[in-house]
């Protein structure tokens, strides 16, 4: 038995002191092929320093052996010695049998550094040189998957599956293909692959994607089932809760939807979007007190979330809390990118507070945005008429009659006003 084999046997038995002695003896006495195999085994077991030492020793003896150079670069990358690794890889020239593998190792390194375009260039060059190599197709597919270029990834995964390769490097390609289709918005194709995977074999991410795909297809029962399974196995998977709520709402299970959102808030109480969506469901259940509580929680977390600001001010207007509306919106109306709904809410509130000058200002500001909304136009008609503002009154009156032509009272008013104009 070689010293290398003894070293591996002692590692397997957990005898680290004996391993160190056998390893030292292997370096002195074992032949180079045996040492090369030992370096590969040690690398696979995570003994980077020992593997690196052997590869460096062999590279000194065989400076033209690029396989050793690429293997050493691989070890150096895992040891966070990226610059040293790239120097070694740059020494492998195109005529070398190890050149394609050097490109793949370099691509992997650049990908981990977030240099996706450089990684892509390396892999495309490797594929040009070895177009039928599945490992290159897989690496390129995985890169495109990470880059969210899902259509490119789909093409490569499909090609591998057609070659009879349903799995590569412990990655289920059927699963990957389904997720890629889902992320590309091609839900019909996605579900055809994803439903082939038993739910017990799915990772949390794949279970989420499968449930989400069923949701997009409006197939709510399997979506709910998978979201519920994911919630039970991984309650910290916070992304699931709003979508579970959405599926339950679609099934008209509003109480269950609110409970799901409340469970989500128990896990992630700092997510203003969860508070906002929980408020939406509470509103549908006509629980205005709970709606306000949830909106205020969301607003406290992110006062700049205009969606929450609008919902809260809408609630105040509905409850005829007009002074609160004015006070609440004071900090927002002077900002850039103000939502015109705030103008509408302020116009109504100031009018009801009999502060007509301010109401007029906000009605005038709101008019261009709501010329197709009857709920805005009809009160605006009466407001401008009371203010004696004939031109804006006629503008919104004409718009209202166009939107609601069967409102005979308003049609008659328009006809009378037009006759008076003559």
From TrEMBL:
SUPFAM superfamilies hit by this protein: TPR-like
TPR repeat ranges, renumbered to this chain: 204-237, 238-271
InterPro entries: Tfc4/TFIIIC-102/Sfc4, TPR-like_helical_dom_sf, TPR_rpt
GO BP terms, alphabetized: transcription by RNA polymerase III
Transferase found in the keyword field: no
Pfam families, A to Z: TPR_16 (PF13432), TPR_19 (PF14559), TPR_6 (PF13174), TPR_8 (PF13181)
Protein name per Swiss-Prot or TrEMBL: Tetratricopeptide repeat protein
